[in-house]
Task: structure prediction
Amino acid sequence: MTTLTPELRDRLRQELPGWLREDLEFRQWILNIARGEFADRVETESRFDRLLEELRRDREAQERKWEEQNRKWDEQSRKSDELWAEQNRKWDEQNRKWEEQTRKSDEKWAAQMAENLRLHEEIMAMADRLDRKIGALGARWGLLSETAFRDGLAAILEKSFGVEVVNINDYDDEGLVFGRPDQVELDVIIKNGLLIACEIKSSMDKAGLYIFSRKVDFYERKHQRKADRRLVITPFLDPRAAGLPEKLGIEVYADPTRMPVD
Result:
């Protein structure tokens, strides 16, 4: 193999272009030698066209994939929007039902409360009427019982024991008993010069004790006669009056189970 010297290389660079232009056989010979190492224009253009075609097919395939993916995304987005819209519709419907149920419950509760209030007021009115009737009946029964007991006791004492029972009914001009002029009624029992002032009541409280004491004081002052004993006969003595009878000098005869304990 001949070594390519610098002189020869320089001469080839100078002469080779002209030889290729002028000598067609020599140019073909050079092309045949170089074809094994370099592709000619046709082959290069063919390879380039194939590469462009492959790139075009790859791009179209990629575009189809992107279009398919976008279509899937659009479909998924549409389904999601429909799902959210349906869910929102269900929530709105549930909220409407809750609001309706709450409104009905509030109305029912308000109606029930109004009915309860009406029944309470009706019951209280009935209880008030009943209390007034019972009170009136009790007061009437008390008065009747007091009169019956007083009359019965007077009959027993007068007929069986020779005791004089006198019902005193005087007018208090000065208002010593009640704080204003009024009639004053008092029962007295007289036996062998002994005078007992007596009060028979269905119940007795502090005010009743004070009034009875003033009645006796009024009698003593008016008739100039001292009562030897002051008696109160009652089935019920108000617990708040405990200790007062002793202070006023009054003897109380009452139901032992309902007597106040000092």
Q: What stands out?
A: The CA atoms of residues 64 and 70 lie 10 Å apart. The beta strands are 164-172, 182-191, 194-200, 229-233, 251-253. The chain has a mean pLDDT of 80.
